[in-house]
Design brief:
With 79 residues, this protein is mostly helical. The protein contains four helices and two strands, in the order αααββα.
Amino acid sequence: MTRSDDEILEYLESEGAGTPKLISESTGRNNNYITTRLRKLESYGLVERPSRGFYTLSGVGEKYLEGDLDASELEPDGE
């Protein structure tokens, strides 16, 4: 997990949902970088993508932000 990952998850927690563009504007990070990190977070189950380019915080992501889950315990899909 990177500081950017935490910023992305915190954004989704506060806003309820978002696109890479909105998140990049809010965090000041590059849109392509945010897209890459969102895909990685999705592979670990921390965010969900209910439709193309639209992300929400998952239940797992909520547990992580609450401190009830250590990210080192997570494995990406397919492993």
